[in-house]
């Protein structure tokens, strides 16, 4: 596979699935609760089924890891998909939902895309360069130059949504930073990649929630790890921290680890 073409293909996938999301958005639709009480809609299933079909047609030897259907194995390359990241926002008419598309080589992410259908915004990255939007409107996405945790702007999982231990750690970080807002699913990471915030901290995520984000954040000059500062992989524990700089990431990891 020519990995340089991965982002071009990912954008092609997003171009096709974006109108599907918008066709379902703010319409009356059935919402089903999965075993973990998270919601799923016809839009989630439709988008992922389309993505899987297009990937199989283009790359029949590639595997797929998605939120709604079983994994398909592969030796080297696997696409990782979250058709509607932020389904709660989606079903409640909030435009801050997105589609995540990533490519893994072995277990390492080599390409990633964040698409916000309702906002018409998109970030694509390969770990070395990240673009905001595409075509004539494309420009480089660059993280902020904030290195001080006391000046940092943070998006975080609301403490009430986390387990007791995680809640204490998140609260300790909130007390250290300048501004805090509740996390807005994948959109927070796009905003970090473009320098509009400095930290994102979440817990309870699955690989399809965070692995497509890694090349986007790193390509914009930032860092995305677990709460101990370790690289993220398929077997990570779902606790992630993204930062615009390594000093800021290290400071956040110290707070999260010492609380």
TrEMBL record:
Keywords: Hydrolase, Magnesium, Metal-binding. Mg(2+) binds at residues 67, 82, 84-85, 209. Its cofactor is Mg(2+). SUPFAM superfamilies: Carbohydrate phosphatase (SSF56655). GO terms for molecular function: metal ion binding; phosphatase activity. InterPro entries: Inositol_monoP_superfamily, Inositol_monophosphatase-like. GO terms for biological process: L-histidine biosynthetic process. CDD domains: Bacterial_IMPase_like_1 (cd01641). Belongs to the inositol monophosphatase superfamily. This is Histidinol-phosphatase, inositol monophosphatase family. It comes from Nitrosospira briensis.
